[in-house]
Structures are given as C-alpha cells and as structure tokens.
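in:
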C-alpha cells in the first residue's frame, strides 16, 4: 500500500481556486487522504444537527467546516517562510 503524496499538509495557508468558494484563503485544519479532501478554516461552513446530550439538552445546530477536494486548492507562499517547490534531484558529482 503506497501512501499518497499531496501538495498541501496540515497548517499550510491555501487559496481555493475553483467552485463556489473560489478566492477564499485559509489554513488547512485536516487532510483526509482516503477521500482526497481537505478542511480549510472558515471555508464551506455547513450546519450539522446534533443529538440531545448533557452538553446540549435540547440538541443544537452547529456550524463547522465542510471538506473541499484537494485539487481545488493551491498553496499560498508566505514571505516569512521559504517557498515550497517541487521535488529536486541531487546534483551528480563528476
């Protein structure tokens, strides 16, 4: 079983490039590799109905982030950090 490699990881700053939320910028909260999706802070807020519990005796409607396909986001370069680039091969010594 090979582990998939993605261009973003948890904590990266990304921008949504397509879809209803295009142009939105946020931090990656989680990467879901099996579904090839990411959760981005403040993007695609959905309403989740919760059951009755001790915390919420009446039940509640909670807003949280929904997943977006990983191909719809791009990495935003930050000036304080070194820019991420593709993989490079080491130079051969002659």
């Amino acid at each position: 079983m090979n582990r998939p490699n993605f261009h973003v990881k948890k904590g990266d700053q990304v921008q949504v490039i397509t879809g209803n939320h295009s142009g939105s910028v946020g931090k990656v909260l989680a990467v879901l590799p099996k579904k090839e999706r990411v959760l981005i802070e403040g993007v695609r807020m959905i309403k989740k109905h919760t059951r009755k519990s001790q915390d919420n005796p009446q039940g509640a409607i909670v807003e949280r982030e929904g997943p977006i396909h990983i191909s719809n986001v791009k990495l935003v370069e930050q000036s304080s950090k070194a820019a991420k680039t593709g993989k490079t091969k080491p130079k051969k010594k002659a």
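note: The CA atoms of residues 47 and 63 lie 5 Å apart.
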